[in-house]
């Protein structure tokens, strides 16, 4: 079985392969599956964007496809950047510019006013068009400045501190982050679903 992850983000591929390690399936990126086109993420919700990307890759590849749409939602900014997290400082903005805009808009806020949440919604699409949705959220706070090494295409990890912790995601190992991250939570729900389906096939 092949499972195509509708992303060109190498950081997300690493996370997914770790979370789904041990399953009898080949996990491939969209590029590895020969799907190099991008679909416009114009949905108003994380679910809409994830489902659109997964359907596109499934139709192009003829395989099972999975996609996620994730973002940082800052309470003081009324949920921004939200679904616009990757483009919050402009389409061509780099990680430093994205982080810089969030920090600039929350400058001067006391720690208790810096509440934020990372949200991830995962869509799984079958070759016959059926789909399933899995979501994960982790609450936390924004640091006042970046801490830790930036991971590829995961810009906000350097300023997000999960509730109950003192370190940012960027200061944690990949394994530690996966145990609690929004994407980890959503993909574990996906993993449990796949495990149940495989068990049904074996029985």
Molecular structure report:
This protein is α/β, with parallel strands linked by helices and 203 residues long. It has one domain (2-202): Maf protein (Alpha-Beta Complex). It is built from five helices and six strands. The chain has helices at 10-19, 46-61, 95-105, 174-178, 182-202; strands spanning 2-5, 26-29, 64-74, 115-125, 131-142, 160-162. Strand 4 and strand 5 (131-142) form a beta hairpin. The chain is globular and about 55 Å long. The two termini are 18 Å apart. The mean pLDDT is 91.
Along the chain, the helix and strand elements come as: EHEHEHEEEHH
Average residue-wise pLDDT: 91
Q: Strands of the biggest beta sheet: in what spatial order? A: 2-1-3-4-5-6
End-to-end separation in angstroms reads: 18 Å
Low confidence ranges = none
Number of domains in the coordinates?
A: 1
Tell me about the largest β-sheet: 6 strands, mixed
Give the overall shape, derived from the CA principal axes: globular
Radius of gyration based on Cα positions: 17 Å
Number of helices: 5
What proportion strand? 15-25%
Number of E strands: 6
CATH fold annotation: Maf protein
> Structural class of the helices, strands and pairings?
alpha/beta
The CATH architecture name reads Alpha-Beta Complex
User: What's the level 1 CATH class?
Assistant: Alpha Beta
- Helix % is 25-40%
What structural keywords apply?
203 residues; alpha/beta; Maf protein; six-stranded mixed beta sheet; 5 helices
